[in-house]
Amino acid sequence: MADLDALMAHGARMAHIASETAMLFFRGELGVDFKADLSPVTQADKAVEAAIRAYLSDHFPDHGIFGEEEGRTGGDQAQLWVIDPIDGTRSFLSGHPLFGFLLAHLVDGAPQLGVIAMPALGEVFVAGRGASARLNGAPIQSSDVARLDQAILYVNEGDKLFRDHSAIFGRLMSSGQTRRFAYDCYPHALLAAGHVDAVVDYDLQPYDFLALAPIIEAAGGVVTDWQGQPLHLGSSGAIVSAATPELHRELLGVLNG
Q1: In this structure, which topology does domain 2-139 adopt according to CATH?
Q2: Cβ(173)–Cβ(52) under 8 Å?
Q3: What radius of gyration, in Å, describes the C-alpha atoms of the chain?
Q4: Which residues in the chain are classed under CATH 3.40.190.80?
């Protein structure tokens, strides 16, 4: 537990470094480039990742690092830090405050520590396996909603879901008591904090989802891929999180017909 407490403290420090760095650029002049897949990358993405890589090199020089912008580097790949410097670059470059910073620490490919920071909101979520989930230092807990017809359901990446899986999209549109469309990490953070009951997400990369799992699970929720398998470095980019095991099982039924 002492090692986990120390890792969580490091995670919180990096969240503050990332937030301070991102806010230097937010709603300011941004240099925007586009990757081969046409996803945008800004000066802020690069600056945040560089700042976190520098911190990790100082404090964990033997660990591997996998960042969205710079890829995989470093030594011990069994001890791997995974960085999404700006989760929601399209939100960030349009001045929308619901962009995040994600950081995970993996051991043998499985996430053991998760950090979600919302720089424009001043919120930092941190959790490790075997420890409580916390928001700005205070414990958080997922809701006790166990039925989908009573749930607040968020559907992330709805446009891609509609394009690629119209039947699943149709079933989701008749599910839940309340439905909202969204993007990026914040709906999952709201689930851990007890405000949202379920989130279906799609077309993610490992740096988009690995930090979510320790936080959601430590808060009492469940998060897996669409087949119900635990998340790890090689998971597909289709995930589902829920406040309770019962709700999670019901959502897997919706997703798999």
Answers
A1: Fructose-1,6-Bisphosphatase; Chain A, domain 1 (3.30.540)
A2: no
A3: 17
A4: 148-255
Specify binding-site residues for Mg(2+).
68, 84, 86-87, 208
Domain spanning 148-255, CATH architecture:
3-Layer(aba) Sandwich (3.40)
Per-residue pLDDT of the chain (257 residues; tens, 9 = 90+): 458 899 999 999 999 999 999 999 999 876 666 665 646 678 889 999 999 999 999 999 999 999 999 999 987 789 999 999 999 989 998 999 999 999 999 999 999 999 999 999 999 999 999 899 999 999 999 999 999 999 999 999 999 999 999 999 999 999 999 999 999 999 999 999 999 999 999 999 999 999 999 999 999 999 999 999 999 999 999 999 999 999 999 999 999 98
**Contact yes or no for 118/100 (Cβ under 8 A):** yes
Tell me if the pTM is above 0.85. yes
Amino acid occupying residue 53? R
Contact 209, 201 (CB under 8 A): yes
Binding-site residue ranges: 68, 84, 86-87, 208
